[in-house]
Structure prediction request, 66 residues.
Amino acid sequence: MRKYAQLLLIIPFIGMCVLLPVADRIEPYILGLPFLLFWIVLWMILSSVVLLIVYKLDPANKGSEV
Prediction:
């Protein structure tokens, strides 16, 4: 289960670093933002979602909350 969590953490890295040259353009505008800015904001939000999933999958977090 831990390997799956580590693999999930690679997804935001790929989206922000590896795929950034693919998204390096201004057109089209999405939600009033240039595409590159929208791409960065989207991956910031998706990174938070991935971190939440990894947190829920971690067996060390199954105990009682403080």
The chain has a mean pLDDT of 86.
